[in-house]
Design goal:
Elements lengths: L19 E3 L9 E3 H7 L3 E6 L6 E3 L5 E5 L6 E5 L1 E3 L7 E6 L6 E4 L3 E5 L5 E9 L12 E12 L14 E4 L1
Antiparallel strand pairs: 1-2, 3-8, 4-7, 5-6, 5-12, 8-12, 9-13, 10-11, 11-12
InterPro entries: DUF4402
Keywords: Signal
Protein name: DUF4402 domain-containing protein
Length: 172
């Protein structure tokens, strides 16, 4: 299982929409309705398809170390007191479904504390995705993105680290 990091996705409900569309459900005389009506027909759903997994590493010296998992390439780099022991690192993958072509806002925390069963603690920092600057749901109402970050392990803190990464997704 290695240094697997368990994930949980949290869904933030859409706030008030400002876009307006031709109203097919309005009483006579009404010419538009908030886009939130359409959004109610296509609620956002966030599914973690693949958990973030840095794979197997070892503390090779008496120094702190870090491992970075790139969300675009999936490549893992290690530095400091950590050395890779093989295994295949896996970047996280999230699938979002909702109203086709809607713009999204995706946010992740700046830092997450991870813990090991034996009491050790590490930090996951610099979480990022491979999404473009202004992500949108596709024509079929889906988008999939990958994410990664940097695992920072203090000197002497070996363990099978786990934690939850809150991922918020909202319509813009």
């Amino acid at each position: 299982m290695g240094s697997r990091i368990l994930l949980a996705a949290m869904l933030a409900l859409a706030g008030p929409a400002t876009a307006r569309a031709q109203c097919q459900l309005c009483p006579a005389g009404g010419d538009s309705a908030p886009a939130a009506i359409g959004d109610a027909l296509f609620p956002l759903r966030v599914t973690v398809e693949t958990e973030l997994d840095f794979s197997r590493m070892v503390i090779a010296s008496n120094a702190s170390g870090s491992a970075t998992l790139d969300p675009r390439s999936g490549a893992r780099t290690v530095s400091g007191g950590l050395s890779a022991l093989g295994g295949i690192p896996v970047r996280g993958t999230v699938r979002v479904t909702g109203r086709p072509l809607r713009r999204l806002r995706v946010s992740m925390p700046a830092e997450v504390e991870l813990t090991a069963p034996g009491g050790g603690a590490a930090r996951l920092v610099d979480l990022r995705t491979d999404l473009p600057g202004a992500p949108r749901l596709g024509i079929l109402g889906t988008v999939e993105f990958r994410f990664g970050g940097t695992l920072r392990v203090p000197a002497g803190e070996a363990g099978d680290y786990r934690g939850r990464i809150p991922i918020e997704v909202d319509y813009e």
